[in-house]
Write a structure and sequence with these properties.
8% of the residues lie in helices and 31% in strands. It binds copper (II) ion.
């Protein structure tokens, strides 16, 4: 076992000890993170996101994302967790968070003559649901067990961090192979927010 894995396991064990009261329903030990959302180019876009990880009775880690944003165009916009915690420029957030065995973080087959068979979207670990904006205000709440805040393969608080990206268009969820065309995951990037562990 690598030294890094040992350290990670020790920190998980330590966190488990500290969080024992959470098993009795105490909420104060839930792992939390936040993100401040800013427009990629439009300074009138702003918002925030709160993330809370809880462990189900079955031992499954579930992360609930609550997001509010102002200044986007009305309608639905794709929201994903992208693989790098960087927003300047928004392209620095790179592809969709997806630490799985396929490692194919591209959201679509843009530029390919034939859509690649291993494009994972909408099944990247960081793929979320659309946020709907009405009269300039959008709210979204979504619970996923595809990511964790705690250490492990699915963690979005990994070495290079993660960031939310809100896209210009809706995610069509690209459900069929033939749907994996350019833009099916929301197209260009409107807003970005680096996900940071909440300071207690
Ligand atoms: Cu995206």
């Amino acid at each position: 076992m690598k030294q890094r894995q040992k350290r990670a396991l020790r920190s998980v064990a330590a966190a488990a000890l500290v969080c024992l009261p959470a098993l009795a329903g105490a909420d104060s030990h839930a792992l939390k993170a936040t993100a401040e959302i800013k427009g990629c180019t439009d300074p009138n876009i702003s918002g925030n996101a709160k993330l809370v990880e809880k462990t189900s009775a079955e031992g499954i880690k579930e992360v609930t994302v609550k997001m509010t944003v102002e200044g986007l165009s009305d309608g639905k916009h794709a929201v994903h967790i992208h693989e790098v915690g960087a927003c300047e420029p928004c392209g620095a957030a790179k592809g969709h968070h997806d630490p799985g065995p396929f490692g194919q973080s591209r959201p679509d087959s843009a530029g390919d003559d034939v859509p690649a068979a291993d494009i994972n979207h909408p099944y990247h670990m960081g793929d979320l649901i659309n946020i709907e904006v009405k009269n300039g205000k959008g709210e979204m709440m979504h619970t996923t067990n595809r990511v964790t805040l705690s250490p492990g393969r699915l963690s979005i608080l990994d070495e290079d961090g993660s960031a939310f990206i809100i896209h210009t268009n809706p995610d069509t969820y690209c459900d069929e192979e033939a749907d994996l065309k350019k833009g099916c995951a929301g197209g260009s990037r409107d807003a970005c927010g680096i996900i940071r562990a909440a300071v207690k």
